[in-house]
Amino acid sequence: MEARLKWAKAHKVWTEDDWRRMVLSDETKINVWGSDGSSDYVHILSTTLMGSLKYHGYEQEAIYFQQGNDPKHTSKLARAWFKENGFKEEHTFNWTAQSPDLNPIEHLWHHLKLRLSLYEGRAKGVHDLWSRIEKEWNSFTKEQCQAYIKSMSARCRAVIKAKGGYTRY
């Protein structure tokens, strides 16, 4: 709770524009051949993150990048990759652990899973599942996503009021 309170206090002064510059990362996965490591993580950053930034016209030095506290995220290899690719160290930080109420993308995951649960019957395989995921993900509107971002200052205030405890978010 202390880390959540410290994090909320540090970010309570962020403006809506600051929050809009946040690139959120989060994942759910299953590893068939063992755990992935920092080299796999760097590969994902090199391909997926950089591709997304390019697609949306974002510059590395102008964004804040949020990642989890997994050791591969804080490894020497990952830190070196961020530095070599023009990310400001103070703009690349680890999110406070066990804080889904402080991570807007968690709400999108929740709503995505709810939408998927409304399908009649299970997906008939990986391709069918991927098709459903893609359809539902693409149905989120810009306004829905922005509403979560706009709520971040209120989320920080709620955590401060709760002395680091959990909130209604």
TrEMBL record:
Signal peptide start and end residues: none
Highest taxon above the source species: Eukaryota
Classification via InterPro entries: RNaseH_sf (IPR036397), Transposase_5 (IPR052338)
Residue spans crossing the bilayer: none
GO MF annotation terms: nucleic acid binding
PANTHER family linked to this entry: SI:DKEY-77F5.3, TRANSPOSABLE ELEMENT-RELATED
Annotated protein name in UniProt: Tc1-like transposase DDE domain-containing protein
Annotated source species: Rhizopus delemar (strain RA 99-880 / ATCC MYA-4621 / FGSC 9543 / NRRL 43880)
